[in-house]
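Final report, Chapter 2: Outcomes

The project's central promise was a pipeline that accepts a single protein chain and returns its three-dimensional structure in a standardized token representation, suitable for archiving and comparison. That pipeline is now operational. To close this chapter, we reproduce one record exactly as it appears in the project archive, with the input sequence first and the structure output second.
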Amino acid sequence: MKHRLNCLSWARKYGIFLVTGMSLVFASCWHPPFSPEVSASLLTSEKLGKPVWQVKVRLPYNARGGYYLPSRYNYNSGMWIGRDPDRLQLMGFWYDSALMKGMVDNYIDIPVQGATILSVLPSSGNQNVFFFTYPGFNRWGSYSNFNVSPTYGTKVGTGFRFGDDAYNFNDTLYWAEISDNTITLYKLLVDGSDPTFTLISPTNIGTLNSLPPVLPAAISFAALGPDNALYISGTLQDGSGVTYRWKSLTENPEQLPIDKPLTGMLADGRLMADTGDRLYIYTPDGSPGFVVSTGALHFSYERYDSAKLRWTAVFTRTLEIPVSNNDGWDYLISVYEIPTDQLETIAF
């Protein structure tokens, strides 16, 4: 009888160890549900190294599905951007370091159609001022007041080049106007303290009389490169991307071998096409350069590092973390930096 009780005692002990051991095995094998966006961003963020700024915050339900874009020189404040196929949700974001708490405010809902070619660019002169460009929607304003940019003709494409502290202090906004079979390009030196455009006027860079045989049905990007070449990019009627370059205002345009609509230009003149899951980099003549896998990692902007006298590319990664409280979600926000001339080291 005593032997039987001992056996039962050992069985109970081994049973406990067995259940506990199996629980640990299953726990160690558990992973969050697979997400292509998170997986892609993880690989690239590992190449970027340790984030220069990282916080975990709880935000209200209306922040769900959004991502963070920091201001140029203060990562504690910026813009929270939500994107759906038919609308943009824009909110200001602040992080209180003392309270270790994130906050969003000034919710703005903007109807759009297919928010796929969207650029949100923070000003260098004011951390609360951002420029938004999307086909049919070009605005420059603060968190709470997005003013319509000047209505000089029909703006069919908008481009942007960042200013620096050394050679060109102001940011430069470009847009094109098409009328009577001509294209006129304008530029505006943007002062972050003047979001209503009351202190400065646009400059007419020139008119192009030599047009390509087929203009894009929707022009999403127009800008002047550092070599003074004009670039216009967009989509054709069939949805395919097309980009033209004029080496000067008097020359005929050439179609570049780029099959995606451009979304930006780096300070050195290289061209960018951000498709949401990948960032394509091209040389100024349209030759393929390299591709960066992004997913949940967003290319935010370039900023000029006056201390190191170089341009720095800034990426932001925003991960949603579900919690049991239905009134809010947790977010892990990471900001990464890399010298722009080293971008190719994070390509895949």
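Archive annotation: The chain has one domain: 47-346.
This record, like all others produced under the grant, will remain available to the consortium after the project formally closes.
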